[in-house]
Amino acid sequence: MFSFSTVTVFATLALSAFTSAVPLSGRALPVVGDLSAVTGVTQNLPVVGSLPLPRDDAVKPGLAAIFQQAQAKIAPAAAQIKAVNKQNATVAAISGPANTIKAALTDAATQIHGLAGEPVEVILVAVEGTALLAVHEVAALLAAVIITVFEALGAVLTLLGGAVEPALFELLVAVGALVGTVLAAVLAIVGAVLVDLIVVLVPLLGAVIPFILHLNIALLISLLGL
């Protein structure tokens, strides 16, 4: 009888002979470390650490934040317009800051329209904290922008009197018209909630109402009931 060690030796020899008999070209053995077989898979796997973080696009700036941002852009440009004199009060000199104001007003109107459908807690939230703006606070925000713009436009009208060239007058009207667009957007969003907004706003605008009328800003005149 063969011992266990003898059987093991015969088995090893037989397996060795069989392996040697099979040509290397006929084997489909993967090479250790060769990842070519899974290249297509690994290329589509995300790299750890490169996954995008989830974004929270639900929170939009309310009216307070929108007007704060707009005023920060408008005020320096308005100051530039107010600084002109009779020698440089031209379309070429005023168009730069005027376009800056127009862009800020257009952006504000777009953001305000984007608040449609949002809850009051989002629309009227204060810049800091969670308190909601009252009607007189919204009126003050609007008045600050309206007064800043029309004081600048009025400075040009006062400086030149009846000698304002048509192209410059049209530029001033274009700027003023966008103020009307912003007010219309605000009323569309909160007019049903802040029903006394215009009543509170108009007395704040006393100093610039003559300029609004002079430039004949039709939408603004209509909304303010002038």
Description:
By secondary structure, the protein is mainly α. Helices cover 62% and strands 0% of the residues. The chain has ten helices and no strands. It has helices at residues 4-21, 39-43, 63-82, 91-113, 120-123, 135-160, 166-190, 197-201, 209-214, 218-224. The longest helix has 26 residues, at 135-160. It is elongated. The N and C termini lie far apart (122 Å).
Task: Provide a concise account of the structure shown.
This protein is an all-alpha fold. It has helices at residues 4-21, 39-43, 63-82, 91-113, 120-123, 135-160, 166-190, 197-201, 209-214, 218-224.
The pLDDT mean sits at 82
Residue runs with pLDDT of under 50 for 5 or more positions = 1-56
Rg value: 37 Å
N-to-C series of helices and strands? HHHHHHHHHH
- Our estimate of the beta-strand percent is under 5%
Helix content: 55-70%
Tally of contiguous helical segments:
10
Largest sheet: none
Number of distinct beta strands: 0
CA distance, first residue to last residue: 122 Å
Helix/strand class? mainly alpha
Shape: elongated
Key descriptive features of the protein:
226 residues, disordered N terminus, mainly alpha, elongated, 0% strand, single chain, 10 helices
Topology (elements, then pairings):
Layout: H1 4-21, H2 39-43, H3 63-82, H4 91-113, H5 120-123, H6 135-160, H7 166-190, H8 197-201, H9 209-214, H10 218-224
Helix pairs in contact: 3-4, 3-6, 4-7, 6-7, 7-10
